[in-house]
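Weekend entry, working from home. Most of the wet-lab plans are on hold until the incubator is repaired, so I used the time to fold the two sequences that have been sitting in the queue since the last round of cloning. Logging both here for the record. First:
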Amino acid sequence: MDDINDFFDFSKNFERKTVPRGCVSGTVATTVIPAEDSKHLMKREYVGTEYSKDVAEMERLKLEKLDLNGDHDQSRYGASCSVVASSCMDDLESLSDSDDDDERDNDNVPSRPNRVDDAIYDRYPFDLRRDENLPIHDKREEIVNTIRANPVVVIEGDTGCGKTTQVPQYIIDDAYTRREYCKIICTQPRRIAAISIARRVCQERKWPEGSIVGYQVGLHANISEDTRIVYCTTGVLLQKLIHEKSLGNYTHIILDEVHERDQEMDFLLIVIRRFLSTNSKRCKIILMSATINSVEFSNYFKIKREPAPILKADSRRLFQVKDFYLDDLGRINNTNVEIDVTEPGISPEMYRLVLKLIIVIDNIEKQEVALSLNSQTNAANSTSILIFLPGINEIEQMCKRLELLNNSEENTPKLSPIRLHSLISPDEQIKVFHQAPLGYRKVILATNIAESSITVPDVKYVIDFCLTKALVTDTASNFTSLQLQWASKANCKQRAGRAGRVMNGRVYRLVPRYYYENYMDEFSIPEMLRCPLENVVLKAKLLDMGPPPDILGLAMSPPNLSDIHNTILTLKEVGALYTTVNGVYSVQDGDISYMGRIMASLPLNIRLSRLIVLGYIFSVLEDAIIIGKVFGFFKFLEICLYNLWAFVSAAGLSVRSIFRYHGSTPQSDCDAYIQKLLWADGSGSDLFAILKSYKVWKSMREQNSLREEEGEHAWAKRFYINLRTIKEMHLLVQELKERLANLNFKEQTTYQRVHWMDREKTIILKIIIAGAFYPNYFTRTSLNDTERDRKMYHVLNGNDPCRTVFFTNFNNKHVGELYTRSIKDIFKDVRIPAKDIEVRFQSGSEKVFVTFKKNLEDEYDDSTYRLTVPGKVRAEVYKAVRMRLSKMKTIINVMDVNMGIKYAEELGIVSVKDGEWQLVRDSLKHADLIVLPSIFQKKLRGQITHIENCSKFFFLPASESERLRDIHDALNDPRELKAGVFDSPAAVSKGMLLSAPLDDKYRRAKVLKVISNARSIQFQVFFIDNGCIGTVDFEDLRCYSAKLASLSEIPPRIFECRLAMVQPSTVRSPNGKWSDDANELLQKCANAGSVELEVFSVVDAVANVFIRVDHTTFNDILVEKQYARKCDENY
């Protein structure tokens, strides 16, 4: 605890230390460890999958002893474990009906196949005639008999043969004829598949939806007590089995599309095989796919040395699908578009090629309809096109091009693009099954969500880019990235199977034929070998069947033991696992904590789950949910973060950006970026920007401010919000709230709940974000700070990097000073006024340096909102960098070199000598009177004349007091005041030096701007010998007489200061501004009289100083009172 308190002690200096690489994974670099301490380090052996051989052998022996005909044998992992390992999912998943719960499979309960189900069979019509046109119907009797005779059956059937809809019906029809109890659960890899198939079967059997056949996806279910066939996602079944610790609630479990080998499917296979060998011997398991590696799955379920039987159900096809490749598109590929097989991706040329292909397909279809004599085919746009793309961004790119094609004036096809991916709602997904509007052809843009188990009847053409995006994790660094890869042949075959369901079809694979046939992988790499293992390790702990390596070692493709060890270490870091097992320290294992049970119950990354838990603890639950959903959606503004606050964060991190980054022009792109900075409200954080924009949108909807759809779209367009994404995010927020409510995670509404102020909420959110993602927020660089700073200042020619950008390729033969205004005008489009820009040219260089300076007038103008960003880098620098990223044109018109030099000479800007031009430098008058301290003046005594905040106050040296009194005496001479009256307001101009009253005395002032109103004319002035701003009536202004004209040439007698080596405390001032307490303390110090300054540095006419107070400094006092924290001076 002392170490923690010491870490958060802001009174101590922050020290820069080099952190050894690899500490997160438990490997400490030996070069930074003293020899005498090396003996205390725990050396971890890195191993691969050899460990799994012993585990698999033990499991094989169990399966060899399996007696399917004997009495049920209660295992030690049966009912006795269900209480010990009960999770927080009790209320989350409630698929099983109450009758099933009362009749768990045990010694006192008769086995399920002997149970009669007359009531259900008599209540609903059972037509045993099945569609004989489907290829799988030829194998109906063989399938039923094989399933009855074997515990596990592998069915391999081509796409479209009918296995997904028919096999469950064959089973329940057989049970009907035998009057036996039957309860079937069939998994699908995706929600849309489970929902659409359940509806299709209900329609075929004329059963009401949710009666005999139903579905459950996530928290959405349509089931009843009568339901005997349930289509669900893989995750739903997995959570049920983990909770129930048995397969006894089901007579048949059908695992469809097992070829996909995602983590949940592989872990589900582990669970099912373990239960088969222990407490659930009478449940039948059916594995199905069109592209399955049948032998591998058959051997995985080898029982008594006999592999599971394999049935092939693709003896015939109703319709043919013809394959075409990039080589076959030569007639439309007139630009010879090629792909780089070493770098998967989609080039703009490939998008254009697909548009050509769509036009050709549309023309072919229209010609076939024109020649057809069948009246049913007269609808020229009755067939649809399905395009497989790797991700949401690519779908958006393709959709934009299709919309542009629709809007073209040429005789082009009318297309109705429909997006299909996992982030849209189920109701939106169902739109793919609807007919296109009259006169339009439906074009479905899908990710691999449409790859399997979905039949869109009117799809005749499939265009496949043969790409996919896969999560890949480096378990040593725990870094996960979404990588674009070539799809496997199995994936491509599944995609081709979407055509040819009700008519002959075509598939166009946009890769060369030779590459597809000879180089593409047969099957994709299982997720268990490339994705984070945190969630499966937690599920293994919920099973309570031993250490995670003993469970995961049973996988078809076991992960490396080193990866499991690193995952366990990560789970211990985030608090999901304890460091001990039954009180004994273990490297390979740890008891699961309550937080770990919560993490295992949520469909989120463990760090996002931790974020939500911390949000609940700190009473910012809703914001945490929203921020977390931002992270996980992977990625609402139009440019290219479950208490109320915590809910927002988790959802925002789960979706793609709600901001629309990529505008139609570079200008709109920059405008969108600026709007996002405004949404961030000075935080500089995407999380806070999303949080604020989502809450504003939600609040306006609740108050009916966005009642009409047109008004909502106009609002979204104005503020660069991606309306569709923010609605998708809202659905995720609501679903996550429901899940948390089932876990009793609810926003506190009692009077005892914590009420955070806005500034407190900001710091609390930062704390929980840091706590959730520790230690993944440290950055490393190969350069030390000195080397990096030296390089940076060299590139910028000594200019302040926090305020300066530079251009290149400026011909140094030109007189740059002639084009200063043109260069300033470049920044007009990003709303940076020319008065805030200073342009410098480097002699003999092609660089042009642009420094953004403080404008005194805007700085004191509270009527306009100023864009703020955290840190010392000015917002204008962010804008300038965005201009470059948006590829805005930075071109200026220049004169001929010789004409330019001549013109500059006429203006007195340059002088020409010996054929070379040189700038005419203005001599500084009274340079010896400048009061800014030199490098030789380390300590000064004087008075603080005016305080804005601790980073801006003005100091009058004691040596200048007498001179200033003389100036004031001259200005306040009654004769001068009488003679200096202005004739009219027109005589007063901006920037003019004059005298104005302050504290009953006239003092030197500079005019900033005019303020006109109905009653009088006033001017805003800056008192150059005091540092404050004031508003003065025109009648009170005085000009300098000829006698006092020299006063306008004397520099100000004060200089600007800021406190060195400190900055506002984040705890007291989350917005980065000095607190009122700190500023009042400085004012109290100034009121005490004369103060002593110690000058640290002088930058841009601002002195960075320490204020000496007794034996310490005022800077240190602010740190001790926690009004400030120490920092380095970066310039």
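Second, folded right after the first finished:
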Amino acid sequence: MLEVKKIITFILFLGIIMSCTYRKNEVFTKLEASKTHLDFINQVFETDSISLANNYYFYNGAGITVSDFNNDGLQDIFYTGNHTPSKLFLNKGGLLFEDVTLSSNLDNNFWNSGSTYADVNGDGWQDLFVCTVGKDQPNLLYINQGVSDNGIPVFKEEASKYGLADKRICTQAAFFDYDQDNDLDLFVIVNSQLMNDRNLTKPRNTGGNSYTVDILYRNNGDNTFTDVSEESGIINEGFSLGLAINDINNDGWPDIYVANDFITNDLLYINNKNGGFDEKANDYLRHTSYNGMGVDIADVNNDGFMDITVMDMLPESNRRRKLMQAPVNYDLFNYRADLGYAQQHVKNTLQINQGINNEGNYQFSELGTFAGMYSTDWSWAPLWADFDNSGTLDLFISNGYYKDLTDMDFSLGLKEKLRFGSNEHSIAYQKETLDKLNPIKKSNFLYKNNGHLDLVNVTKEWGLDEPSFSHGAAFADFDNDGDLELIVNNLGHSSFFYKNNTIENNRLNEKKQGSFLKVKLQGPGKNKNAFGARLELFSEGYLKQSYYHSNVRGYLSSMSDVIHLGLGAESRLDSVSIHWPDGTFQTVEAITPDTTLNIIYKPNRKKSTTFRPKTLFKSIKDSLQLDYVQKENNYIDFNNDPLFYKMYSREGPSIAINDINNDGLDDILLGGSAENSITLFTQNSGIFEKSNVLEEDKQYEDMGMLLFDADNDGDNDLYVVSGGSEFAGQQNACQDRFYINVNGVFVKQEGASLSTASGGPVKGADFDRDGDIDLFVGGKISPGKYPTSPISSLLINKNGSLQEETPQFLKEIGMVNDALWSDFNNDGWVDLIIVGEWTKIQIFINKEGTLEPYKDNALEDSSGWWNSISGGDFDNDGDMDYILGNFGLNSYIKADKDHPIRVYADDFDANGKIDPIISYYEKDDKGTLNEYSLHTRDALISQIVAYKKRFKNYKSFSEADFDEILKKQDRKNDFVLDAKILTTTYLENRGAEGFKISQLPIACQISPVYGVLVKDFDGDGNLDALLSGNQNSADPLFGNYDASNGILLRGNGKGKLEPVSTMDSGLYLNGDQKSLVNLFVGNQQVLLAGANLGTIKAYGNNAQNKEFNKVIPLGPMDAGAFITFQNGEKTKLEFYYGNSYLSQSSRKITLLPIMKEVIIYDFNGVKRKVL
């Protein structure tokens, strides 16, 4: 009878709430404290002895812990308070809560920050651990003694007894079983309140002797803990704000991620399974957030691997960004890297797990800007949870700060004022100045996950758009209806409680979706919470979701240990697999949606049945003895050209493949850089012998190289393009070079007719059909005159002598990055296609040996930051289609037809040097896109000193629109270029209907694409494509574009290209990848990839059986082939002298068993049958 009364009361109370506040189809409804009785307001109070002027931590807020402390099946809430006492609220049902802090013996007057819970002593009751940040205040451990007669949990503080009463500045903690002994150990993160310079560049302290080293406590099994930090490898300093426990590398052992503020690295401690941890952040992550705050780890894309999200403070609007962007010092950026600091950038980061590489390290691609969640202002708590039960995890982010410390006018002015005077004067002046600072008060953010990292900002639509100073946050199903409520701990105003209406909305709209599954685990031994368990949910034989059970997530907060899985429209669930924290496994079948599944530890298998598939490619660099690391000199473009968005002096290396010593084997040439000569690898008995060649010309910056038989004497000669940006004003510093092959030795020829422009690509073809190879050489950059067009050249081969005969229309065609000789119209004459930076896709049609500009309406708005082009008949219709590498979408530099990137160029300050001012479209404070300067105030002043007078402070610059930065009267003689497409693209050749531009899959858009290699990699008769890229010499303000591991696109023969996951392809082409080629070692096809400031990488193809393949060397005049397959399908293949960016692949063709007939044709159309 009592239970029935409780249900009736719940329904009546819910009806009152719904009738007063619920709007139809509203996802979240904010419930006021007057209805929920959650009357908690976190506060801080300034005094003479403590304020932001002498305490970095003053406005950093506090967290929330959610757990069922009285075992009544309802989730309770513990709010931590700073100068406000922390409070415990019991859930009474019907979303009504009761403050039981005093009767639970939880009242304390310490400065609390984070908190967490666990059944520490294994007695069936949840205990509570509270971190303190006040001076000489110990951490607190409240042991749950059970409930009183009124059902209220009663706690006893026993931190000293358990050995956990540390008095350092501890921000958060997490219980976990790191040694798999079935009891709970404890990890505590440490910060500091000392007012030292936390961004001071000094050698990293990794010796365990810093006052900000985190703490690892081992559970002794007798209700005591021992600090084992140093012996366990926890020895790195940091200003720790965020903590997450998860199994990063899928080995069944818990790892630790610590997000650190300021210059100190984020830390990724990988469990070594031997009682300790190895710090692997720099091995796993390519860059991180600079001001690491809250952190959450979850399987964001449902691929079975855990992804990492860390918060920072990059604003969303142009005004706020320009107000906070500090001067960029690239030399300091590199110096910090030399000292062991990670590449760090001010932005939220989303690290997507790509699996294990060839060195045994898990690799992460940072895709925060691609996903659109990188700039949510001063952010604290990221929380991934399925708020709409769609089957994908949505992202909540809390933000806000009482004083805008990122205001550069304040920061630099304060630093100048504090250079002299006493400490008392310093504090007094800081307090006075801080009082004048504006707050950062915006709404929190919520992103709906539509899958494939398509995150849509639904903050306003879902009812969360109230400005606040929010910190810790948590989610739980507080009313047990099957969807997740959201609670937020605010500073200076009432906490938020948002009721979730998903279940009600689905019933109201009769939607057959939004199902859920809740799971409650009971673990082994004293780990009753089963922290460290991993769940995998299967439907129709496929993995649908994976979940790692750890309660500490977000910022200073802990979630309920009732696991919530949204199912979307899934109605058929096969099983749930549990990997228990002690390494055992259990499978539960016959799962019913919309229920709570209680799983008690009863392992029914010892090992996982997961199968690691054989990858398509395998690293073979070591077996080929390819020992090579590309080197660069110390030239920094930004010191002379502060408005560059990347460095043009670091665009190599090039790779050229051909037979140099006439033994029939492919040899390798790798282009040198200024002060570093060309490297030759000569093939011999399946391995390569290394030597340096042409050392007399090592002063040049090598760009494109081409090996071809220029004089028709039967061996391959060499053309090398000289380029780079470091030789502005130096005559002949970019002189191209031409070498004749004399018995395997290259002899330099007179180069009077060769280009002296800073060039890029060189591509060859017999375009005039006179029986020898002619060359196109693309001008890449005009040093000191960016972005004016350098000179491109057409070199006509006359009996082995290269004569410059460039048509006028071909000379100044922009900044050329790549070109391709290809017969796009099937008339038997190879045409020329050119791509570049700030240029459209340009085609020059070959009219019987004469090139003419070709127009196609589809290409009129095709300007981009194009890097590369390669061709193939992807739809098997008999003509050539093309893949074009571009800048990509993983940057906050975006462009489209209506919102292009532009560069305005002129000598605006009349000092004899071109000033290139780049604009882009960004949001204003109202969320409207407007044109703004891409550059910071300091970068513009470095280029044009007069801007210091025009914009006397950062505030005036941040509020200026583009017409104020570049006034119309200053633009009388400027020239303007634009880029309207940044996506890597598929250019479909539709014959008489012209070309069609289509964006390639999103996996191709996560980094700039340079290398494009087109081959039938899997031997199915359809062309595939392999893309490589990244850009690690970008302006540090924007961060490196380094997310790609190389993308394999599998073709279906009908023009559709589908990405293959890194874990299936086996390719890990990380680093600053540039060139990408194919060569043969015997009959084995080998991929070779060259990276700037990186090692060369070589992969063998596991799909093609070399014993059944026949490799045919091509003649020097062979231009392509017509292939008929056993199934009757036909295709066209072209053979190139130069394919994609700075790349020349082997001139050999593989005959596969699936081929029926192969007819090769030369540049004159003469055919021969080889199969």
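Plan for Monday: verify the second prediction. The radius of gyration is 32 Å.
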